[in-house]
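For reproducibility, we list the full input for the iron/sulfur cluster complex.
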Amino acid sequence: MTRYPDPKQVGGDFYSRNFAKNARPDTLILNLGPQHPSTHGVLRVLLELDGEYILRAEPVFGYLHRMHEKMGETKAWGQFMPNMGRVDYGHPLSWNWAYCGAVEKLAGIEVPERAEVIRVITHEMNRLTSHLLWWGAYILDLGAFTPIMYAFDDREHLLDLLQRPTASRLTYSYFRFGGVSKDLDEKFVEGTKAFIARFRQRLPMYKDLVTDNIILRKRVEDIGIIDQDMVTRYGATGPVARGAGLAYDLRVSEPFGVYDRFDFKVPTQTTCCSMGRYLVRMEEMEQSCRIIEQALEQLPGAEGPHLVKGAPKPQAKMPAGEAYFAVEGGRGKVGVYVVSDGSKIPYRVKLRAPGFSNLSCFAEACQGMLLADAVAVLGSLDLIIPEIDR
Amino acid sequence: MSAVKDIFQSVKDLWSLFVGLRVTGKYFMQPTLTVHYPRETVDEDVEQTYGGHVELVPKPKNPLKPKCIGCMMCVTNCPSGCLTVVKAKAPKPTPEEEQAMKEAEARGEKVKKPKAPKEPAKFMYDYSLCSLCGTCIENCPVGSLRYSNNIYFVGTSRKEFKLDLLQRLQRQAENTAKAAPEASEPEQAAETAKSEA
Amino acid sequence: MAAPHQAVEEVGTLHKTAGTVEPALVQIQLVDKILNVCRAMSIWPMTFGLACCAIEMMSTGMARFDLARFGAEVFRPSPRQADLMIVAGTVNKKMAPAIVRLYEQMPAPKYVLAMGNCAISGGPFNFKGDYNLVKGIDTLIPVDVYVPGCPPRPEGLLEGLFTLQQQITGRRWWPVPALKEEG
Amino acid sequence: MSIHPQLLHLIIALIAVMAWVGLNALVLVYFERKGAGFIQRRPGPFEVGPQGIIQPLVDGIKLMCKQLVMPTGADPVLFWTAPLLSMTPVLLLFLVLPYGPWLTGMQIDLGILLILAFAGINVLALLIAGWSSNNKYGLLGAARAVAQSVAYEIPLLLAVLAVAFTTGTLDFVKITEGQGPWPWQWNMVYQPLAFIIFIISAVGECNRAPFDLPEAESELTAGFHTEFSSMGFGLFFMAEYSYMVVVASVASTLFLGGYQGPFGSDGWWWYLPKVYAILMFMIWIRWTYPRVTFVQLLNINWKWLLPLGTVNLLATAFFMKLF
Amino acid sequence: MSPLTMYQLVALLLLCLGLFGIAQRRSLVGMLISVELMLNGAGLSIVAASQLTEADAVLGQLGTLLVMGLAAAEATLALSIIVVVAKRFGTTKTREVSTLKD
Amino acid sequence: MELMAKIAFWIYALIILGGGIVAVGSSSLVRALMGLISTLVGVAGMYMLLGTPFMAFMQLLIYVGAVAVLIFFAVMLTDAHGRGDESEPAPIRQHLFALGAVMAVGGVLSWLIMNRPPASSLVPAEVSIEQLGHGLLESYFLAFELISVVLLVAMSGAVLLAWEKRGKK
Amino acid sequence: MVFSWLHLAIVLFLLGGLLFGVGPLLLAVLLGPQAKGGDLGMPFECGMRPHGSSWVKWGISYYCYALIFLAFDVDVLYLFPVATAYGSTEGWLPFVKVFIFLFVLGISIVYFWAKGVFSWPRRIKL
Ligand code: SF4
Ligand code: SF4
Ligand code: SF4
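The corresponding predicted structure, in tokenized form, follows.
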């Protein structure tokens, strides 16, 4: 009877063997992921465990590398657009915007007034869907099954609305160089107003059910400390930075589009822990609602074009040069850098994904932590894997 | 003092558990939100705004023929290369015509060669590569493409997703004709097709 | 260097699954029919999302569409307890061995549903010059049902489930919605 | 040869308990899924049978015709012992539970001890399951399961003891009869603290959410039964649900007056609603709260339940002498 | 043979098995298991004697009960010692432990 | 019923013997532990036969529910693969030595038992749990208190031993 | 030797329970189709090949602390016989005895609490 497992089967792979080189002899090397309910897709984290305590962690990625940047170099400017909706399926419109913004900057395209406001509205609605998705999935990681159902209920309303102009539920390819592909209709505006009113009533319920719950608070408070020092060292952005007390929000600090017209707060927390990041996101949802409300009011009449006249065709050539454009996505700073050699195919497209920097903090933040807490920290970073792997 | 505070805090913390129970209890009583899919479908409104795979728009006069003029704009612009359009060739002249043409040539007259009709002979579409981006739809000069409403599409083999859009158009037209046999006027048929789609 | 007895998992080489399914020891036709109906009505998927399509898979499980109605809401994280592997998303060459392994680790009877264009053929990522894409998961493991779309609507996934049930039992159990027939 | 009436009684009881355990697993699974559904505003199982009523049965049959897999390198004997060990004592636990004045398998004066003794075997089963499957998640889950069960057993015992002190017996029937039919005559009123402690630690003992650490999905995939497929998993599942019923039954016997009904209408019709009320409560909290961490779990136990239980027991002893 | 003798023989069997185990096992845990066997034998013998003779049955049972308690106490201590030893020396082989100095 | 008791006795004796042999002989410590557990269960059965269900339940509660689990953890902590350090065969001499010693002790004792049977009754005494309780509260209350102290001391000793380790980490 | 009804009942029910478990397992063996080949037998670890056996010596000592309290558990068990007798005793002496017993228990709780055994660290320093 062999009770020693076949070494062929338990030899691990390249990564784990490398990881195990520095391991203590009495520890357990554990793969968390790629198929694991709490890594949201296919992140793989190698853990060195002493009992339940994590001595070391090392994220391994590339399990969802989709060659986005390479693809950018093979497709015409406009043809690359659809892929922007797939880099980060949580908040695709921010990537839409970042890419469009970069190309518009490169080619000097003016965006009509109405399109700008439409962009803000849809972008913020998309942020809401992104945060709701995160919220539900995060609480699911923490072991409560019901909140995600409520979150998706709200999310479905948003998706129904966003589907009207975009014809899609998730992987939007809505923005165009010089505007957006389809105008908003009356129903959308009405529906959005109704939704905001409804959502305002739902937020206190979320707070009652989850935010105030003592079990949850005890679980996420004081774990996964990512302070300002770490934030700056790793270049983390978005709610992770704001949870560390850094009021860095591109919508305010480097306003893009017409964000400077709206009055909203940049929520920050100084606790630096998972709860801080959680609260920042919850607060951001309220602020998004405010922005949408204001934008709906400012929406120029239907006569305004939603796409600039003579907007470039997908195969159009772009002037040589380079441009960088960054927007504030649901996870942080989404940046696109494009280089053109004057042909109809980009010379280089570089994507700056916020998730990558945020995830980098994880290895340091989770040292010495319980396995269960590590899951809570991982969730609080709000990772979307394709964006990290690109 | 701090002990009192602690106790007070603990009570408050415990209370939060009851608040949670109240929330879920309340929702337990409320009706469900589910759309019982195969028996009922989501609002028409939602269903119609969702883009299924791409399909051809028939000519208003002739529901059997697409509006398409075979300009290939959609093919060149599609990022995923899922469209294949073969332009219609000029109809092969019949022997008599050929004869006539030859004669005419011999006569030194300007030959009136039959022109290729502006329509596709074949319009193939590989749905399994499509990203539903809408580029083809936007760039079609005559508006011959649109999102279909075939949104509940599944298959048991990869081949099923290589669609012949022309055939599909014809099938649709037939279906419409069957559905509305009294509407023999082509315009009317086209209209019904449009509204149903 | 890995010790010689340690099999190195080569990165980037794809292996077709070596797993096979053999019939049960005891087979009685009538019993089998009943069992097949039970299997079809209780398909437990594996918690396994790859990319964007996984979000729609989640949506399908949520209140609006409620996969639970058909007994398929029991998402099991361990392949040992799962019947159905929903490949929802892009499969690349690094991930492929894991998917094949997970498939092999599932006990029979097991089914695979390819959800989304990526899983069917590589979808939008199937471009000239791709270097890391598995062009269709059916090149590696046997797929029973394909649900196209990018991403498919949740109803699409439900339809996929119905089709799978149809394949197992030989009949469709639920009414066909109007739009589906138009096809 | 005539069968001894006592033997006949036992055999009937055995068959009844078997039916009850089987039926109960189905009913409880159905309730759980429906309850979860309604809390989440969806119907839950719906299409398989009217209102999805035969869904659990279908699931059970499906589990029964799935392949049994054992990982290579696992310890084969222990691997298959574990689910059996988990299931075997379950029926016995129902032997002493008084479902009605005459609906008791056997009335013995050590009823509580019998349940405690044989329920303890489950811990061992989980440990063996996790260990023998040669899976790291399984091992972690097993370690968690045992540490948790051990920890929560102490307050549980203390709560039970408080009742045993007041009633002076370990016989379920006598404990039932020591209470009256009306709610204010129940032990719950005299021992509210013990009741609360009992419920909390019972949830902990059953590995139910929010204390479902051993099978915490988002951390340990499936915990100690990660490697168990088909009926191996099914048996653990069934055992878990049966233990739920057992603790709920014990709770309603000890604290809620058991089968007693007003005006002499004693019977299972009073008992079952109480049991199911407790079970529904357990389902309710499962679908409301997030999971606690291991640290919290132990803190709740050592810093709250244990001291409170001890004090409660002391107070009970004191007041018994006082009055 | 009277029933009592039979019980005593079983108890003796347990004792002998335990003894043999202690002599032959070379790891602390193995020895602990053997000790438990012996304790069980003792318990069985006491209970049998008190139940089947005129001796005070209550005393017999309580005595065994206490033995069980002691066994638990002993196991607790032994476990922690084993843990410490294992951590310290990396082995629980008695021979190695006795020759190894920290 | 008498016959049933006889059969049961022999079955339990066999379980004890088999379990015991596995417990001392198995090279896998986990298997040995399983042997121990079956022995414990067998002894519990014997207690049942002796008319003391209380002892039987206590046996299960304390030994199977507590001690066995503890030992399982000890195995996992020290030799997680369960092979113990018994993997290499013991020198034959040691075996023989142990066997001889045990045979000697066993022989003498069994001779004593067989030849000096004390007066015994066929029917075991009936003791109710209440009597035991009174015993603990009255005649033997010191033991009752002592066991509590002993367990406490053992536990604190154990914790102290292990505690230092955690502090150091 | 007696073979009580209780004994019989226990044996009967245990056997019943065993049957209850074995039956479905056997059915599963007979009725289940068999998947073979590939990595079917590889221990599951999120789709990756596990690194090393799970039966290596590793720091599970974390759980050990919880287990040590088994002694506590055993301690409490002694109160069961007492519980049945307590009600029928006269005078305050039994209370004092129980009190001492529980007091010792209480002392250990206080002692361990003060020692910090009950405060499990949220994270360890490395
Ligand atoms: S929708 Fe986009 S990907 Fe699909 S055929 Fe049209 S252009 Fe191509
Ligand atoms: S569909 Fe439109 S774009 Fe495509 S070939 Fe026809 S006319 Fe041109
Ligand atoms: S098919 Fe589309 S939505 Fe699905 S994973 Fe691929 S890109 Fe994402």
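The first helix of chain D runs from residue 5 to 39. Chain D has a mean pLDDT of 84. Both points were considered when choosing residues for closer inspection.
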